[in-house]
Write a structure and sequence with these properties.
2 domains, four-stranded antiparallel sheet
Length: 189
Amino acid sequence: MVGLIRRGPKIRTPPGDGFMIERRIDHLTRKRVAEMSAEEMRVALLVSAKTGLPNRRAFDEGAPSPFVAMSDVNGLKALNEKFSYSAGDILIRRFAEVLTSVGLDAYHNHGDEFLCKGETFQDLNLKLTQAQRHLREEPFAVCGLDARITTIPGADFCFGIGTNLDEAEASLKRQKELQKVEELQKVAK
């Protein structure tokens, strides 16, 4: 993002096994509004700093669409607790990349929640299903609390589609409930 990120110094940290590794610490700094260019202000208002996608404000102020989808990453809390919040951030950024890679008009709402616009239910459903397959099948690396790099075999998400956000959210909640039932049935077998 233009003028919003400053590179920090390299530091050496022990990963827990006695060997030193170098990591660069990136500090997110905010310019004062008076110091921002018009483009920097536009980016600060309309783009998610975490994902680089347009944000909820951009979604709300953009052109309406006949269908919208709401999605959210499964298991983010468990990933954060097992590895670190930076691991969760990697997954959120990975999810954003996957959504756009399948051609979705995607927006980062907040946390692990994303919104998409589409012309038809079928198009949104097809592209979100493709995104699910990609996210499930593509491993990604995270740095654990012990500073060791671990490869996560993939991740998953649920989504709901409707003609407005209320319908999409209701559909998403139903999908999450169905997923819980399916998981309980697997455990019971």
